[in-house]
Structures are given as structure tokens and as C-alpha cells.
Write a structure and sequence with these properties.
Helix content: over 70%
Structural class: mainly alpha
Number of strands: 0
Length: 294
């Protein structure tokens, strides 16, 4: 092959790699089957046929790969709204791009007369591919942690709304449904979907909230379900309990924010200390050098 042909092959490979990376950042359009599956029981939801090519790739490769390659829990994936097949397909695409990118760079370097041993791109490809394969796990884990913090903040407001509805004489189910209709964030939307699904299958709303809390690892939502079960079955006064629970959640979130702020302050003191040491070295260095040369 001539140099022009090698350049064309390298350009095509690089263009494919950039196109795959760009497709990962493109907004995905929800499928009608998946949207309708959210309104059905869990047994029907699992039978939805994958429509995204990355999800089809993950579903095809899932049985052929070992089970320990996923570093995040299924609860984190469900919280951020990613299926197992789509997540595994994303990991495979990232790994493929990480494996191919050093080879493309090596081919381009060879075309411009820059020689390097073949072992360098091989080792870089292995390391970059392994790092790219783990990157989706870290991204999902961080996204799930941020989603749980956001859910806790919205849930505290939701508990206050439920308490206000109960103080106005609304029943347990009516208070939960009316409070869920107030907000338009993703937290309130998922609460409405959970309550609607429990209504359609003929279950008490607190059972639906408990299932959602167990399914997504949300202990605060589980506490709310237990409180509403108590007031729904025994008729206990719930206004004071709900307000106290919301206040305790805000106190816990405030403590976490203060701990993070203190941690950031401690990290900021390190560069200042290093700068002070460098400044002292600049002041004392010439005097020490003068004493040593005498």
C-alpha cells in the first residue's frame, strides 16, 4: 500500500472512533415500548426487546462474558435509568475505542516517518482499553450518588407536602398522590409512577413506595413508607412524625455538606503550605549557598 492509502485508512479509522465517541454523548430518544413498560409490573418490564444498538450488543455479549466485569450494582443502574444490556454495550464500545486509538496514532506516526517500537502501542492499547472499560462504572457510580443526594433533598420537600395534606384532613393515599403532583422534577415523576402503578395493581401506596425504596436502595423513602403504613393501618397521628422526619433529613444533609466543605478547606491548605515552603526556600537558599561556598 502507498502512503496515501495508509493515510486514508488511518483517517477512516480515526473518523469511526470519533463518530463512536460522539454517539455516546448524543441524547437518546426514549422508545415507546420502554416508556410503556415503566407503567407495567416488573415481570412484564423485563421482557422488553432492546432497541438501541449498544443495548443489543450488551445483550448479545452478556452471556459470553464473566459475571464480575460490572463494578456497579443493579440498583445504581436502575436508579439512573440504564439497563444491564445498554450498560454492558457502553463498556464494550469504550473498551474498543481505547484499544483501537493507540493503533491509529501509531499508523499516523509511521506515515509521517516517526518510528516507534510496536510494543509501545500494544501496551498503551491494553492499558487504555482497560481504563476505558472501567470508566462507565465510575461514571454510573458517581451519577447514582448524585441522584441519591438529589432524591433526598426532593424527598424532604415531598414529606413536608404530605404532612401538610394530612393536616388538612386528606387521607393517606390522597395526601401521597396530591403531594406527588406538585413537583415536576424526575424525583416527583418517579414517585407519581410508583404510586400510579401501585393503584393499578390494587396495592396500598406504602407498599409501592417500599418496593421502590428496596429496588433503588433509598432508605429515606423506605422510612416514609413505614410511616405511612403506620398511619394507614392504625390511624396514628402522622403530621408531627413526618415533619420530624423531614427535619432530621435536612439536618443529616447539612452535616454532610459541612463535612465536605471542611474536607475541601483541608485540601486547599496543602497548596498554601507548599507555597510557604517554597517561599522560605527562596529566602534561605541564597544565604545557605553563600555559607557553603565560603
Amino acid at each position: 500500500m502507498t502512503g496515501l492509502q495508509w493515510a486514508l485508512v488511518a483517517g477512516v479509522c480515526m473518523g469511526l472512533g470519533l463518530a463512536v465517541c460522539a454517539m455516546g454523548f448524543a441524547p437518546a430518544h426514549p422508545a415507546l415500548a420502554q416508556s410503556l413498560a415503566l407503567l407495567t409490573p416488573q415481570t412484564i418490564r423485563e421482557s422488553v426487546v432492546p432497541v438501541d444498538w449498544r443495548e443489543r450488543l450488551g445483550v448479545w455479549a452478556g452471556p459470553k462474558l464473566p459475571g464480575g466485569i460490572r463494578l456497579v450494582s443493579a440498583k445504581d443502574l436502575r436508579l439512573v435509568g440504564i439497563s444491564d444490556g445498554a450498560f454492558l454495550g457502553q463498556k464494550l464500545v469504550y473498551a474498543l475505542v481505547g484499544l483501537c486509538l493507540p493503533s491509529v496514532v501509531w499508523v499516523v506516526a509511521a506515515l509521517v516517518r516517526v518510528r516507534m517500537p510496536w510494543a509501545i502501542p500494544v501496551l498503551v492499547s491494553i492499558g487504555l482499553g482497560a481504563g476505558a472499560f472501567v470508566m462507565p462504572d465510575l461514571m454510573v457510580r458517581d451519577k447514582a450518588a448524585r441522584a441519591r443526594r438529589e432524591f433526598s433533598r426532593a424527598l424532604a420537600a415531598y414529606i413536608d407536602l404530605v404532612a401538610l395534606e394530612r393536616s388538612c384532613g386528606a387521607g393517606t393515599k390522597q395526601a401521597l398522590d396530591t403531594a406527588a403532583d406538585v413537583g415536576d422534577s424526575w424525583v416527583f415523576r418517579r414517585l407519581r409512577e410508583c404510586l400510579d402503578q401501585a393503584t393499578w395493581v390494587g396495592r396500598p401506596p406504602w407498599d409501592g413506595l417500599r418496593d421502590m425504596a428496596d429496588d433503588l436502595a433509598l432508605p429515606d423513602l423506605g422510612d416514609l413508607a413505614d410511616i405511612m403504613r403506620l398511619t394507614g393501618t392504625q390511624g396514628a397521628g402522622v403530621y408531627t412524625i413526618l415533619r420530624a422526619r423531614a427535619q432530621s433529613m435536612r439536618t443529616a444533609m447539612m452535616s454532610d455538606e459541612l463535612a465536605k466543605a471542611n474536607e475541601v478547606n483541608e485540601k486547599m491548605s496543602i497548596p498554601v503550605s507548599v507555597l510557604g515552603v517554597v517561599f522560605l526556600a527562596i529566602l534561605i537558599g541564597p544565604a545557605l549557598m553563600g555559607m557553603m561556598t565560603r
